[in-house]
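Exercise: predict the fold of this chain.
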Amino acid sequence: MTIDLNCDMGEGFDTDALIMPFISSANIACGGHAGDENTMRETIQLALPHGVAIGAHPSYPDREHFGRKEMELPLEEISLSIQSQITTLKKITEYSGAKLNHVKPHGALYNTAAKNKELAMTIVKAIKSIDPLLKVFGLPFSALQVACTIEGLVFYSEGFADRTYTSDGKLTPRSESNALIDSTEHAIAQAINMIEKQLVTSTEGITIKMPVQTICIHGDGSHAVSFATAIHNALKEKNILIKH
């Protein structure tokens, strides 16, 4: 059994170098909510020695709210912003002698694309115009997955070790007090349950289907390094291969 373990990086936190040995994919901020060409380059250099796959982490062009607020923008404007962000990282990645592997939308863009068909299709077409071989990370059963199927892009269903879920399979909004998982044991158990049983328990205690190919650990959390270490070790103990 194998699983990809991914982390959002290059967002201005000092945990990236410490987390990198424990993951298999890095989603690198590319200027929309955080990051610039220097941080992209630095994060890529941290990833390469560990064989970590490099992915783009584009967002709404909203540094003020860290990309966590939905923006009412024309779809064409969103498309151009996403293309610019991904292309910038792609060029830096290739200049570093590596290859861009995937794209994972960030924050509000990720959550809105899970339910908004038009936005999801806009994102997928923007990605496809750059490289149709790029994989796309997103929530299972989402509008983003449907758009990838229509456009022929490879979709990776993503689960979260450190976030809770509502009973409709969506992430609990960060505005809710129970949105984040603080317990290492809870994070490990949730990750393993998604990997082995393709299930997750919602905040209401409902068991829901959650088929995943990649598990996310957030690099900006206070428990980021300890969670990454503990989850990595727990998966190894259960002979689950961490591989992108």
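Check your answer against the key: Residues 145 and 155 are 6 Å apart (CA to CA).
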